[in-house]
Fold this protein.
Amino acid sequence: MNRKLVALSWVIIASLSLSISHPSFGEMNHGARDTAEMEMHHLHILLNHGITMVTEGSNLVMLARMGMAGEVDRFSLEHGERMISHARNLYREAMDGEAMKRLRDLGVTPESSPMMKLTRDLAEAISKIIELLARMPAPSSMATPAR
């Protein structure tokens, strides 16, 4: 009796794993919706990277403007400004590049997809943060290092 129970358990486990691992044995959805979701997931990763770059870049710019590290300040300022510029470019590529064009071609819009609406809302918020940090004024007590 115990062997029959073990054998039956193995048959059930094998049949369940076949339906998961092989598309012809179970319903699997790898269509346009999954492609769109993966594209949006990649866009979220790019946007996250962009916000990280702009925050780190603005930190470098702010530190450089404090003028406390001599020659290093010039390099910090240049590198921070490049990071902010790259963050803007990354944002533009994510929102206007090939991935977004593919999504539009698949018919994915903020009206048709809650995830696309979230992606657009996230992108708008990140765009505002990028611009705020890029324009962050230096206090008058801070000197801009010579280039």
